[in-house]
Amino acid sequence: MVRPIITFILLALLVDLSYCQNLNGLLSGGSDENCVYIFTIPRGDEGSCPSLTEAAGSLTEASSPLSLLAYYPLDCDSKDHSDNGRHGANIGSALYSEDAKCGNSRFFNGASKIQVDAFNGFNWGQAFSVSVWIKRTGQAGNYQGVVNNGYYSTGSWEIRMGREDGGTMIGGGVVTSNSPRTWDYQITGRVLTLDEWHHVVMAYDGADGSLKYYIDGVERNGDESCCSGALLVKNTPLTIGQAGSGSSTEYFYGFIDEVKLFAETLTADDVSKLYNTPFLQDGLLSLCDEMYHSRLGDLIYGISLFDSNFFNESNSPCSLGVELTYRDNNMVIAFVDKRFMLVYLLTATLAIAFSSGTQCQPNNRKRLLACYPFDGDVKDHWKNNTGFLTGNEEYSDDSICGTSLHFDGATKITIDSFRNFTWGERFGVSVWFKRTGRRIPYQGIVNSGYYDAGCWEIRMGREYGGGFLGSGVVTEDSLRTWDYKAINAAMNEWHHIAMSYNGETGRLKVWLDGERQEGGINCCTGPIVVRNTPVTVGQAGQGKSTEYFYGFIDELRIFKKILTQRNVRKLYFRPCGNQ
């Protein structure tokens, strides 16, 4: 009998786990993240729900398909994260970056590579595929190996970039008994642009004599009928980031992420899934990935879950804290987590995390200093750092979430509880703003003092027609702010800015609308100075009597933590949800 499939939700609160630490060897999550893991299992003959033990027991099978030869997420190591244990060895610098498709990526500096000796003498067979994300950022005049088990005719297969078309050409192929060398595909026309992420897949079917090449989910033209039969067995290792055995040069310069090798021929549908949902790993989906939420867009906020007819606990056949119901003839399973005021909803095709209560309940809750949603007041909705408003108190529906506070060029908020505050070496601030008038004056958004009089600031200038934006911190070796400047945030539009400081590594980062900005990343080291200055919202702060903001400010959050790109994207793509 064919059993219908339902989807089950397992909630795991991961506390004090590093990004690279695995849960039960299968699941990984970021520090202090509240993650939901989704997988499918057969429903019982009577339509009954499985036990929690049965549900969890199916996880191992779902996460490790037989066709996956190796999986290198390159989040923090060169290990194989499949069950096969084909771990790589780093040769040269091992640098990891938040500029990634999932988690972190590996940065290759033109002199580093990963070598996997476990693939020496490997029998690849006649069904093989490789999937990889790449972002070439430099040395466009060189050929550069991406992933292979040997150079050109030395190995069994390769993906490699050339110097043609300004370094955008990419090629590859396989080696069989009737095809002694690679480069069955040479793709030109600047399809794979520099300084941008691209997804590359090569899929081989030796039984049908077919080799296909995909870039960004689209099948490309090449010698599809080049080869047949099994790939030749070569005593060469797998190499990532260099041309491989047979070449001592051609190192990659840029970022590589999510390398997967399969003992099967991926279909166009398989490739589409890998391209559109790179965070979906073999049937296992982590809802703590910000990319998933960003793809849902406005749909998240267009559905209401909280009517009495939707969840009917008395009629639920499950007794696991999970509620099962039907809506519009679709089976829906949801888990309600009252600790964080979250509802997790799942249908056959869509999974959503909703916030049902206060907006200021981040998972990194111990490191949130203050939260000001400006929904009818200037109170801190997290602790007790309530502000004092000077001027007109006017709230507006022109907002990001709820209401925003309108600043009329003579209004500001002063938060005295932050006087003499020890900001330390870990600091972050996130705020939404919309400047609507008075293009000529400089205008303070949020700070703890003006320029060199405070500890940090975010402020706008008159340049770019009033769209000029600057920010920075003050430390012992950086006596004034504006380490970042000349950022362009157009007037009369909502923008999100986030600033994060790590004094231990001497790194200051700024994002505008979810994108990293160029500026003085290495400006400063050590703790932010301590000053007897309040936090000011809507004006340049202590040390300046003018430079009031004109426009709207919303969703201000101040952190005693280093914001990662993952954090910032959540704050940008999910401004009204649980962060």
Task: Please explain how this structure is put together.
With 579 residues, the protein is mainly β. The protein folds into 3 domains: 5-63 and 288-355, no CATH class; 68-281, Jelly Rolls, CATH 2.60.120; 365-573, Jelly Rolls. The protein is 8% helix and 36% strand. It contains 7 helices and 39 strands. Strands 5, 7, 8, 10, 15, 16, 17 and 19 form an 8-stranded antiparallel beta sheet that branches. Strand 7 (95-97) and strand 8 (105-109) form a beta hairpin. The longest helix is centred in the middle third of the chain and has 9 residues, at 268-276. The radius of gyration is 27 Å and the shape is elongated. The two termini are 44 Å apart. Residues 1-64 and 279-366 have low confidence and may be disordered.
CATH topology of the largest domain: Jelly Rolls
Could you report the average pLDDT, rounded to the nearest whole number?
76
Put simply, the count of helices is 7
Alpha-carbon Rg, integer = 27 Å
CATH architecture grouping of the largest domain: Sandwich
Which terms summarize this structure?
single chain; 579 residues; mainly beta; Jelly Rolls; 3 domains; 8-stranded antiparallel β-sheet; 7 helices; 39 strands
